[in-house]
Design brief:
By secondary structure, the chain is mainly α. The protein has two domains: 114 residues, no CATH class; 47 residues, no CATH class. The chain is built from eight helices and no strands. α3 packs antiparallel against α4, α4 runs antiparallel to α5 and α6 packs antiparallel against α8. The protein is globular.
Length: 191
């Protein structure tokens, strides 16, 4: 199958730049509130990371264990997220893992912005890569690809921002129209 020349030039990072906000509204959020919310998110995501390590790596973490199938995660109906058990486990692992990697990125951001430490560029790139790893697990379980996810995402953003980013379009979103664009561009998967 030959590719359309316009499709072969698709560059996700370039497309993403077109739809990002060009402004920073720092006056909209108090610094103390920003600090507290970042700290709360980091604490919550660190706790979730403990659960991830227990569920998927077998690490014993005191305080997480309850006995009996109906009182622990063996009682989860994994078919609620995917009819095939191994893929359901991968979806749970991937989605939780993606969140925990975001938490590690928040930790680096917190240290740089609020503790006057230098931004650890190497660590941030590592966390992005770890996020990609979890994305790969999720997309494989959904029988999808990075290309499909990226193209679908940009189609949605182009529907939201036909020319370029606008604050009005970012705040007053037409969710039903965006959902239709996602579905038309492969965002709905039959497994």
């Amino acid at each position: 199958m030959s590719q359309n020349p316009a499709e072969s030039r698709f560059e996700y990072q370039t497309e993403a730049q077109r739809t990002k906000s060009p402004k920073f509204y720092g006056a909209q959020v108090g610094l103390a509130i920003f600090r507290r919310r970042l700290d709360a998110a980091i604490i919550a995501l660190q706790a979730l990371d403990e659960i991830k390590k227990a569920l998927f790596y077998g690490k014993y973490v005191p305080g997480l264990t309850e006995h009996g199938v109906m009182t622990n995660c063996l009682g989860l109906d994994l078919s609620a997220v995917h009819p095939l058990h191994p893929d359901a486990v991968d979806l749970v692992h991937g989605i939780i893992g993606k969140a925990t990697e975001a938490g590690e990125g928040l930790e680096a951001l917190f240290a740089a912005l609020l503790e006057s430490k230098p931004l650890d560029r190497v660590n941030i790139i590592e966390e992005v890569g770890d996020g990609f790893w979890y994305d790969a697990i999720i997309l494989t379980a959904l029988r999808s690809t990075f290309d499909e996810a990226q193209r679908t995402n940009i189609a949605k953003l182009r529907a939201r921002f036909p020319e370029k980013f606008t604050t009005t379009a970012a705040i007053d979103r037409d969710i039903s129209h965006e959902r239709q664009v996602l579905e038309d561009n492969g965002g709905r998967f039959t497994i």
